[in-house]
Amino acid sequence: MGGYGLLGRKLGHSYSPAIHSRLAGYNYQLYEREPEQLESFLRKGGLSGMNVTIPYKKAVVPFLDSLSPAAGALGSVNTILRREDGSLFGDNTDLYGFLSTVRRSGVDPAGRKALVLGSGGASVTVCEALRQLGAGEVRVISRSGEDNYRNISRHHDAEIIVNATPVGMYPGNGESPLDLSPFSRLLGVFDLIYNPERTALLLQAEELGIPAFGGLHMLVAQAKRSCEIFTGRDIPDGRIDEIREELSRQMRNIVIIGMPGSGKSTIAGLLGERLGRQVLDSDQLVEQLAGRSIPEIFSLEGEEGFRRRETEALRQLGGLSGAVIATGGGCVTRKENYPLLHQNGRIVWITRGTEKLPREGRPISQRSDLDELFAQREPLYRRFADCVASNDGSPEQTVEQIIKEL
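The chain above was modelled as a monomer; its predicted structure follows.
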């Protein structure tokens, strides 16, 4: 026996190997298997332990020899340990992970009404966690159950909402299971999704001033508990926050905004070199998708046509992770671009004196008074930006400033 891994049907990119490597340094691989392969893989696969993800958390239960009380009560397993005698023991560390998330959030469910969106295995786990935390009323919202999205208005008094569905998960960025605006009593919104970092549901909560929490903490916390089961060794709880923050920095895009000619592309290129990140440019993607240059787009379609194309490019770029993204100078003029950039990004506003801004090849700069243009856009840049860096000195100095800020 030897090694550990994640069992699922379609895994794609997973952060689990990176998390387990940081927790214990053992070999951890991804294993995609079809349903008819489950029994053979579990009994003859030879792994010392494995995590289980969608759609097999319930499907593996019949092949296990024993279950923890939590796994037995929930009928769902996400952690399997092969004991020395070869028997398979199943546990559910998602429960630990969500309990850790809620406790870390500072939101107290005790006595509160909670809605859990979705009726799958994750929903069952979340409901149990909320009950353990003393929630006053827990309602499951599904597409066809007694409580569903058609009659959800009778639950507008909910104080906590948890999304336990995959709605809004990459590559379905921008989708949301419901509109939060009618829920006037919300104290907290939780989403089990961790990619993107901020789902459309969380972005709306943020806009409404409601405390919002994504799924990355839960992912790391459940992995930490799984690792303890695999190795038999305790891991300090502080490692959850350390690894979560490290992963969050790696996953987060660095998005560069600023006036045309402020040096965004140059700064993005230097940041990419320093940090070993992919560098992407929204103007280049606009041209690639359109099959013509930006001046040609302005000539044939006008500024409005260009802006529509720019938003589509930002939709594609903003859904990625861990990149440096240079944007066009006017992207801030469309409100809908903000969530596209903010969902996975830290937005940096590059400033530069208007007297230093070039005009060549920039249709709007050529026909505008740059001082007036800056006066119009300055509040928009400020609204988008998480931090500001001056590029009135050398580009290298600007890059140093940004790295310190981030």
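Residues 4-92+219-248 form a domain with the Rossmann fold fold (CATH 3.40.50.10860).
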